[in-house]
Specification:
Layout: E1 6-12, E2 15-23, H1 29-34, E3 42-48, H2 52-64, E4 69-75, H3 84-96, E5 104-109, H4 111-123, E6 129-134, H5 137-143, E7 148-153, E8 156-163, E9 168-172, H6 181-198, H7 200-208, H8 210-214, H9 218-238, H10 253-262, H11 269-286, H12 292-304, H13 316-323, E10 329-330, E11 333-334, E12 336-341, E13 344-348, H14 353-364
Parallel strand pairs: 2-9, 3-4, 3-5, 5-6, 6-9
Antiparallel strand pairs: 1-2, 7-8, 10-11, 12-13
């Protein structure tokens, strides 16, 4: 893979919208941001108490080469701080620092920071620009791409949000070297999901290159993240506001989000999605779409990356009830994502409560 990195353009309605830039360091961050015509403007780096001490100083230094003023706003790390109260504190900071509509925010962190910063950017002064600088595998291949922003409301994930496209997504893949193992594993769930819904050959490539991926070798990380970003980019371009095909990206998420809430966020998002993917594969088999061997292969692939396919300590009936509060409901029915085969997903609105409960029971069996 070329040392100079990779660039993926993202379009909306056929017109260029923003770039996804994959690099091995922060060296070209200022150059990329300068292309956005930000000279003389302010930027606020929004980060958290885990990421800030590692990267905020360097990112501040890089952005100072492009912006007139750079401030840093740090929140406590963790999903429980992804709330309207946290956004309120950020609003106050922006007001006191006199940020106007031509100034920007920069999200430096994982999915929580990206979602929260994007939501603040979408709503402060009715919308200002922002850039994504994702530092986790999950945020690099998923939440930083596509413009979905939001915060949680009373433990219901992303129930308050907006569609607001970033001006740039800049990924420094070397930050993955310091990512805790469990967070890296969590990101692999979304990557495996991309193969399951859109690219069977990519799914097999991930299995074949498992060792290099787990060792975080750059010659495996760069093509892996590039392909996952390309898959998500292609889906988002066709359906930017989730009216149709973009729902495919929710494979594993309906049950996964319910598990995540009921486990009080003690399980990571990707771990819950992995269990949800296993449940969706099982349901696809029960529908006569996948054969049993395909379901076992999917589950073995998930487990080979240390992802769970079973969940303990929760009541299946309660999981079913929680799925009905999911934002993916449509006129009282759940838009559930099934597989015709590996690499070929589709949206189904005919899944019954009995079928869902059967799948939930399957992943909660001891």
């Amino acid at each position: 893979m070329e040392k100079e990195g990779q660039t993926l353009p993202v379009r909306r309605d056929g017109a260029f919208c923003y770039s996804i830039r994959l690099e091995e360091d922060f060296e070209k961050l200022s150059e990329c941001v300068s292309e956005l015509s930000v000279k003389g403007r302010r930027v606020c780096i929004v980060t958290d108490s885990h990421v800030g001490p590692l990267y905020a100083d360097e990112v501040r230094r890089r952005l100072s080469e492009a912006f007139r003023t750079v401030t840093v706003y740090t929140i406590e790390a963790g999903e429980k701080y992804k709330t309207l109260d946290t956004v309120r504190g950020l609003y106050e900071h922006l007001i006191l620092e006199h940020f106007d509509r031509k100034d920007m925010l920069a999200a430096l962190g994982g999915g929580v920071i990206g979602d929260l910063t994007g939501f603040a950017a979408a709503t402060y002064l009715r919308g200002i620009g922002f850039i994504q600088i994702p530092t986790t595998l999950l945020s690099q291949v998923d939440s930083s791409i596509g413009g979905k922003t939001g915060v949680d409301f009373d433990s219901y994930k992303n129930m308050v949000g907006a569609f607001h496209m970033p001006r740039l997504v800049y990924m420094n893949l070397s930050v993955l070297k310091t990512l805790p193992e469990r967070q890296f594993t969590s990101g692999m769930a979304e990557i495996l999901k991309h193969g399951l819904i859109k690219n069977a050959e990519y799914f097999q490539w991930l299995i074949d290159h498992r060792q290099e991926i787990l060792e975080r070798r750059m010659n495996a990380l760069m093509p892996m993240i590039l392909e996952s970003c390309r898959i998500k980019r292609d889906v988002v371009e066709k359906d930017p506001t989730e009216q149709g095909e973009r729902a495919l990206l929710n494979f594993g998420h309906t049950i996964g989000h319910a598990v995540e809430k009921l486990k009080d966020f003690q399980m990571y998002h990707g771990e819950c999605v992995a269990a949800g993917c296993a449940a969706a594969a099982y349901l696809s088999w029960k529908r006569g779409l996948l054969d049993e061997a395909a379901v076992l292969r999917i589950c073995e692939a998930l487990k080979s990356f240390s992802l769970p396919v079973k969940v303990s300590g929760i009541d299946p009936a309660q999981v079913l009830r929680t799925t009905k509060s999911d934002k993916k409901m449509d006129a009282g029915s759940i838009r559930f994502i099934l597989l015709r085969q590996t690499g070929d997903a589709f949206v189904d609105q005919s899944v019954t409560e009995e079928e869902l409960l059967d799948a939930i029971n399957w992943i909660t069996e001891d």
